[in-house]
Sequence to fold (109 residues):
Amino acid sequence: MPSNKITTDSYNDGILFYGEVKTKLDNQARKIGEEFVLKGKLFYDEMSKRDQDLEVANSLEKTLDYKVKTPRIDLDSTYKVKIKEEFYDILYIDSDEKNNYIYLTKVIL
Fold:
């Protein structure tokens, strides 16, 4: 018997921030650092990493440090993601009708 129960995603594990890292220059155009330029934020649920997820990351010669589910938006895979003061590169993004599944690898800025 089909269930009439409506399921919704909670996205209650935290908030991630996404944006670009811009180089800061001094008056002589020398690099003096980098800054994170925020483009937006999303609530997320942390997902478990499956063996096939780890294999895909390994084939890209990267490590899969985090996998999260967010509401679906058009997200540029070149953005950096900040979660709890840590920065990540986006390895890839899978999407369905209502969610993005974002695969992340840690980076040092």
Summary: The chain has a mean pLDDT of 90.
